[in-house]
Task: inverse folding
């Protein structure tokens, strides 16, 4: 895939990051909710949530997710990320991502990134289905597998 296509995917995700839709599994029933995400230029996708939320419990049982970024109102630019979520416990990563957030997370986590309620989620994409216009049609991006150092 060309670097310009990767940039287009990142732009779609960043442009719709404040209202992405996360689907998790609760037994055999999918659960979808709106999430604010933090998307980096290298396609790292982060989400902050409460450590005792239902989504964290669901992810612990089944880490497979789908994350939808859809330009409103008509979805002419969309990216659907299928993959797994890792729960990140590293305080270093929590502090770094905290600073990247486009909103004030202190309103939810009063003690900052050290809050015991603060849970950092990282989406590991296996496949991204996307389009940047209705005319361009659906495209598929599969990230290359790379050696990943432990991030916990």
Result:
């Amino acid at each position: 895939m060309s670097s310009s296509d990767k940039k287009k995917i990142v732009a779609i995700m960043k442009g719709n990051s404040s209202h992405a839709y996360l689907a998790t599994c609760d037994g055999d029933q999918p659960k979808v909710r709106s999430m604010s995400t933090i998307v980096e230029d290298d396609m790292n996708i982060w989400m902050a949530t409460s450590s005792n939320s239902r989504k964290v419990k669901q992810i612990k049982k089944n880490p497979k997710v789908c994350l939808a970024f859809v330009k409103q109102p008509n979805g002419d630019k969309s990216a659907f990320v299928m993959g797994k979520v890792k729960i990140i416990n590293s305080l270093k990563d929590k502090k770094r991502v905290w600073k990247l957030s486009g909103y004030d997370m202190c309103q939810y986590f009063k003690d900052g990134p050290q809050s015991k309620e603060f849970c950092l989620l990282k989406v590991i994409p296996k496949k991204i289905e996307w389009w940047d216009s209705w005319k361009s049609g659906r495209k598929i991006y599969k990230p290359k597998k790379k050696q990943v150092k432990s991030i916990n």
Notes: The CA atoms of residues 50 and 117 lie 5 Å apart.
